[in-house]
Amino acid sequence: MAFFAAMAGRAEVTLPAVLGDHMVMQRRQPIHVWGRAGIREAVAVSFRGETRATAADGLGFWSVYLPASEAGGPFELSVKGNNAITLRDVMVGEVWVDSGQSNMEFALRGALNGEAEVAAANHPNIRFFKVNRKTSPFPATDAAAIPWQSCTPQNAGGYSAIAYFFARDLEQKLQVPIGVIDSYWGGTFIEAWMSLRALSSSADFMPAFALWGRTIENYDALQARREQRTVAWKESVAKAKAEGRTPPGLPWEQNQDNVDMPTGLYNAMIAPLTPYPISGVIWYQGESNASPERVPMYAAMFETMIRDWRRAWGIGDFPFLFVQLANFRSGPNSRWPELREAQTQTLGVANTAMAVTIDIGEPGNIHPRNKQEVGRRLALAARAVAYGEKLEYSGPLFRAAVPEGETVRVFFDHAGGLAAKDGPALKGFLVAGADRRFAAAEARIDGSTVVVSSASVAQPLYVRYGWADAPECNLYNADGLPASPFRSGP
Q1: Model pLDDT, residue 2
Q2: d(C-alpha 266, C-alpha 472), whole Å
Q3: pTM assigned to the model
Q4: 461 found inside a domain
Q5: H helices within 243-294, ranges in order?
Q6: What is the helix (H) or strand (E) element at residue 176, kind and residue range?
Q7: For residue 94, what pLDDT is reported?
Q8: Residues with Cβ < 8 Å from 233, sequence gap 6 or more?
Q9: Which is higher by pLDDT, 185 or 258?
Q10: Is residue 127, in this structure, part of any structural domain at all?
Q11: Would you say residue 458 lies in a domain?
């Protein structure tokens, strides 16, 4: 035991992956630096003329906070214990985490005009840190990752297109360095991004564990079939290359690498980031949860997840900005309208905002390429919610529907300058009476409200707008932002 204690005493100071050269640290929040060292080893950290000292605890963990700092750089940050570490080209600015599933993961090179966008992506003050895909049954203290890099045409193509356009817009507006932490995985469920504390906080979430149990039944047989498919795929790749054809991609499978495991992605890809102060989060997820068995849980899960991430970071109710599902023909067993509704309900959580994308999807493509506009709309929300700029950042959001005899009047928030895009007629409205049989409706704008009626519904009570997987709808406000789909009544 004395030998191991002595060895621990001579251990070198180490830092987690997120602390490295070229990083961006959050301005106006205490600078947090932490890591491992020998047991009780003295550690000193210096940054921008300030030094703080501490000692590692009985397990070798240490942590210090330096005073909050204004934007600037490049700087050096030094850590000294039995050894010395110097981090170079450190910037101070705004740091955002982007997370979710494949539409957030969608790479810049695949976006509209992707080749030109990548060629122009020379932004030395935008820095990316990319967390590698991984799951864990317990919260990890460090993440496997691609280290911090300045944004250049040589590396930008593989980063999140939405996060890039979001960061580009913010950097142009704020004129400070922008740090982006990519942490996403395509095809994933929200329950995988929740901590066990959050997921076990309500009996209403227990079906998520039952669904996981169903997924891993006969796991050995599933693995054997996966191995067979992998062998067949490798053979098809070899054959295609021999024949001069483009090799097929590896077939996608749900639950690859246990990605569906409840809490697994939070543990491996979010928990290690929580000691690192940030400005906020942008999120694009929900497609995988748009099924009959998962949709009923989504609104409560999403709200719980947001609150729990904020608890884990411990820096207050930071802005959490998210993307509503775009228009897509998803199939007869999906519940995309209900999932969009659940996302809208989450706006009741403080310091949230939603980018509506019902107008910029591709009905036949679950991965629409217009990520420029998605990033722009998220950046508008950030400018308003995170940075207090007085601007319109949301399209019209349903507030109430009031029957008025043969019509129903619909009230909205964010309704300045309502207009029908691409023509005088509004599209996408349905009405129903007490029987809840919905019929196509005529709709007209009246100031900041919309009046809806149908010749086939004598006394309309309920209204729906854009209530379909890939609806045709065209209500906007004066700032060119689309109205969110909605339904009134139960």
Answers
A1: 36
A2: 36
A3: 0.94
A4: yes
A5: 264-265
A6: none
A7: 98
A8: 248, 250, 251
A9: 185
A10: no
A11: yes
